[in-house]
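Our platform keeps sequence and structure together, in a single record for each protein. Such a record has a labelled line for the sequence and another for the backbone structure tokens. Nothing more is needed to write down the fold, since each code stands for a local backbone conformation. For reference, a complete record is included directly beneath this paragraph:
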Amino acid sequence: MTDAIRGMEPHIFWNCFAAISALPRPSGHEERIGAYILERAGQLGLERAKDDCGNIVVKLPATPGKERVRSICLQSHLDMVCEKNADKVHDFLKDPIELVRQGEVLTANGTTLGADNGIGVATSLAVMEDKSVEHGPLELLFTVEEETGLRGAKNLSPQLVASRTLLNLDSEEEGALYIGCAGGKDTVARWGVAREAAPAGWSALRLAVKGLKGGHSGLEIDKGLGNAIKLLNRALVPLAELGARLATIDGGNMRNAIPRECGAIIYLAPEQAARAQAVVTELAATFLAELPTVDPGVKLVLERAEEGPATVMDLQLQRQVMKTIAALPSGVQRMSAEIAGLVETSTNVSVIGTEKDALVLVTSQRSSSASRLNEVVETVQSILELGGAVVEVSEGYPGWQPNIDSPILKLAQRCYRDLYQKEPEVKAIHAGLECGIIGERIPGMDMVSFGPNMEKVHSPDERVYIESVARYWRFVQEILKTAQ
């Protein structure tokens, strides 16, 4: 047992969480955790199956006296977002997550924790392990590649799951029952890069934005967090007016995360060095003044690059890219008129990267309205195409339309009320839950989503509240025991 979870309750749950935290599970590399689940289910004599996409289901027979209860599916995804601080040495394909307890929260040492969706996976494993949990027939569904386009859900074999009631264990607010989510699409721009030799005698410099918190581009898009790509571009524009030439630009890691860091290698005439530093110093103060509470750690630095590329981008392309990034919207575009406090439509400038002969920019759009999703995608696509890029729009994923008459919602409300003597909140979420896709793949599925309190998911500051997990675990057990 890792020291971080020693003495934490429920101990079966935390033992399961620690076990999966030791298994690398980036999106597209869920083989080890999948093998672990299949092996453990086999050791317990449980029926299990795997579809062609890698999704896994484990079937638990009912506990004595619950054989006639309707079957329920507990659903979670195996993969996690892999983000780390720049100074953290960690290989997500090999190294375990280092769990750290800080008072009332569990976090990780310089990396994402993987509570999204390790909490859900650990819940299903704990139900599998804990013989004291009362339940009817259960199916434990583990999907793959949720974080990089919901590929597992999109390719889920309908024959894998017989249940028509589903608990999605992938939400992050205790006491909230989610019955709807946003749909989304990714918009990817690609510019062919023409290059020329870097100006002779000019200095190679690294311009970087760092120290931002980052976060989930759906759940935290309304927090006013800094976007490293947008901020860096704001600095590049005045430096270009001083003659700076752009060699490379790279920032962000995940399409569904607000980028925390972005860096560029530029070349600048030596006589412009002092003026460039003054520009950066002034902008660094401006960024701090704009983000005093939400991102107080923001930094903008300009320093000599130890070794720069031998070439820079064509000047016309450089101008096109900078103007395009400046024109792109990023953040909340519209709030819901029906549900107070719910973001309806948003867009995020997510990832930028310099390849050998191309520059690639990834953006992500979300909306609970199909028509407004199409509208914001068209806006972003138009700006990118006007900027000279070749644009590809992903197939996307559907939203999940709320059903306030859902039987599983009513059961969950009653169980929460009985446990905690208060009403849970019923909400929709501005994020892409797998429920929308699963509902399309398996018509007639009755679903609700919930989880314990988590913060800063998709960032190295990700944390989960320990006491909240204990209450969430009791809630899961109560639903399974009470279901008829």
